[in-house]
Write a structure and sequence with these properties.
207 residues, mainly alpha
Length: 207
């Protein structure tokens, strides 16, 4: 029995000892990546539930998942995107913005994906750099055009949405590196660890 089989045997035993367990597979790219690790036999694993989160909409077409238990998360509405954007950009003064400014913002938000990450990143970037909405879109477009075939393969970008996300995030990265090129090693390190729990001591020792 190899290491993986021993580990699976141990996990199955622990799950069976604790009924009503919840197993979460987060940000799955392909169902084939986790297929052999998905509990199927209650006699072996015990009773429990599984949640799979993914940006791959094709997963819902597999026989393994029940159609009625697939939840499609849509983007923000126009009102939600607008509210999130102005609260970040203007803070407590968001209720005082002019009609003309609101019109510019609504036009701007039509040009970026209606998802919290994109809206938040754009708002904080514009707030910190004081550039115009048009300048921001031009920077995003410029970064999209810089994508080469190797980057596409590494990032596994297959949709316009992902390419736009790359442009938005890389615009912020370019700004960080323009402040200090030495941040490059820190950015690389951060990309390799869990984005939700980055140890401060690790960053201090790195730089």
């Amino acid at each position: 029995m190899d290491r993986e089989e021993k580990l699976m045997h141990f996990i199955k035993g622990k799950f069976k000892e604790h009924p009503r367990w919840l197993l979460i597979y987060d940000n799955v790219e392909s169902l084939s990546d986790i297929l052999k690790f998905i509990p199927r036999d209650a006699k072996v694993w015990g009773e429990g539930k599984i949640i799979i989160t993914t940006r791959n909409s094709n997963i819902k077409n597999t026989d393994l998942l029940e159609p009625g238990k697939v939840i499609q998360i849509d983007g923000l509405t126009e009102k939600e995107s607008f509210t999130l954007f102005i609260k970040i950009l203007f803070g407590s003064n968001h209720k005082r913005i002019t009609w003309g400014e609101k019109k510019k913002i609504r036009y701007f938000l039509q040009k970026i994906p209606p998802f919290p990450l994109e809206i938040t990143t754009a708002a904080y970037y514009i707030k910190s750099t004081s550039i115009s909405y048009i300048e921001y879109l031009e920077r995003v477009k410029k970064n999209r055009e810089k994508l080469d075939s190797q980057q596409k393969m590494i990032l596994k970008e297959i949709t316009d949405y992902d390419k736009t996300r790359y442009g938005i995030i890389s615009t912020s990265v370019d700004t960080i590196l323009s402040v200090d090129p030495n941040f490059l090693s820190l950015l690389l390190l951060i990309s390799l660890v869990d984005s939700q729990e980055i140890p401060k001591d690790l960053l201090s020792k790195c730089q």
